[in-house]
Amino acid sequence: MQTTMTKAKTSFVLPKLPYGENALEPTISARTISFHYGKHHAGYVDALNKLVEGTAFAGRPLEDIVLQTAKDPATAGIFHNAAQVWNHNFYWLSMTPGGGGEPAGKLKRSIESDFGNFKDFRAAFTKAAVGEFGSGWVWLIVNRAGKLEIAVTSNADTPLTDGKKPLITLDLWEHAYYLDFQNRRADYIASWLDKLADWRFAEKNLA
Ligand code: FE2
To answer: Residues with Cβ < 8 Å from 110, sequence gap 6 or more?
Structure first.
């Protein structure tokens, strides 16, 4: 009994999706979510649990593992899986059925202050996301000077390791959109901005 409880305490679990697998249709299909969440994200959780078992990282909070394994080739495998778990946890929360459009309130004012207006922010976010050559992520973050900024990270990389505070993210790996948009990444980005981005989540993170 004791052994079972100890093992359970050290294992990461796949967080429950905050909506049904078909809730983001037609932009993101249930089929995409079933692979992306059920296979890719779940795969990162399983791999992370196997990699940390019996190491000093077992039982540590996810964010600590991400920060402590970054930029060290000896812990690259743990970093890649831990960061991908963190990034995907954050990505699912970055979307909501009936989202998209323009933010309101404090986030709107911050975007206007740091980008001029929402239209210019949207153009810059889109340009950065389209321009990421391979797999990666586009983020709206707060930089160390307290200003909003667009960041792009490659593969599993995350702004957390540069001391930046993520507000919202969009997954640019092909597994996020290929079944629905094939090679049309720009259409995925536009549709996500129009229909899914959860600006209220981003605003909560700004607080
Ligand atoms: Fe992904």
So the answer is: 148, 206
Q: Which CATH number fits domain 30-93: 1.10.287.990, 3.40.50.720, 3.40.50.620, 3.40.50.970?
A: 1.10.287.990
Task: Please tell me the distance between residue 93's alpha carbon and the centre of ligand 1 in angstroms.
Answer: 13
CA of 53 to the centre of ligand 1 (A): 24
pTM of the model: 0.94
For residue 136, what are the β-bridge partners? 154
Q: Kindly give the distance from the C-alpha atom of residue 127 to the centroid of ligand 1, in angstroms, as a whole number.
A: 20
pLDDT tens, position by position, 24-57:
999 999 999 999 999 999 999 999 999 999 999 9
